[in-house]
Write a structure and sequence with these properties.
By secondary structure, this protein is of the alpha/beta class. The chain is built from 9 helices and 7 strands.
């Protein structure tokens, strides 16, 4: 049954996603808000397909608090990268620069608002990251970052990457850590499992802590469901 559900998801969700993403191009002349609307429609389409084709839904531990945050989220699957757009009310997302340069989708993503990260980590790449982040925070939207830097399997807890502390210090935003267990339901590969993805919203961390303190607190918080 899981295989049949997963095949149906691929055959229905992905072609529909392509059509929605393509609609971002005619929406562009109407401004950034119109493009963001297209992206959110796509995120809702993905949620609909995940719920009714795969039997996967999200469950939040608490309502998302009002305000602008640096949202530090565990990253175990593609699911949370799309679902976060709805849960956190169209946030700006920090992602690999390669993704923001993909044909079609990359252009729409840039119009929506993403911050591309160069994995090489050069000085010029860091300056570009900081500049993009400064512009993003002016919009009043929260910023989603995956502090461990890459998708990991359940149980893995790599160290927090340096880019997180740099953004935290520069932006001066409180941090909303989020632990989740998506990797157990949405593993790598074709077959997905039905079930509930828990989003555990941890206590908010204040700005202006020193680097070691904030990195340790965020690492512990986003891995709260790994025990």
């Amino acid at each position: 049954m899981a295989l049949i559900r997963s095949l149906l998801f691929m055959l229905i969700c992905y072609p529909g996603s392509l059509l929605i993403v393509l609609s971002g191009f005619p929406a562009a002349p109407f401004g950034a808000r119109a493009v963001r609307g297209v992206v959110i429609v796509w995120a809702h389409w993905h949620r609909f397909c995940a719920r009714f084709l795969l039997g996967i839904r999200s469950r939040l531990s608490a309502p998302v608090p009002a305000g602008q945050y640096l949202i530090a989220c565990k990253h175990q699957s593609m699911f949370e990268t799309i679902e976060a757009l709805i849960i956190f009310d169209h946030p700006v997302v920090v992602m690999k620069r390669e993704l923001s340069e993909m044909p079609l989708w990359g252009w729409v993503a840039r119009q929506y608002g993403v911050i591309g990260v160069d994995r090489e980590g050069s000085a010029s790449a860091l300056r570009a990251l900081m500049q993009d982040a400064k512009e993003a925070v002016k919009t009043g939207r929260s910023i989603v970052i995956f502090p461990e830097g890459t998708r990991v399997a359940p149980g893995e807890q790599p160290a927090v990457r340096a880019g997180f502390a740099a953004l935290y210090k520069m932006l001066g935003l409180p941090v909303l850590p989020v632990a989740l267990n998506a990797g157990k339901i949405w593993p790598r590969g074709l077959i997905k499992q039905s079930g509930v993805v828990d989003w555990d919203l941890r206590p908010i961390l204040p700005p202006k802590q020193d680097r070691a303190e904030i990195e340790a607190a965020v690492h512990q918080a986003i891995n709260a469901l790994e025990a």
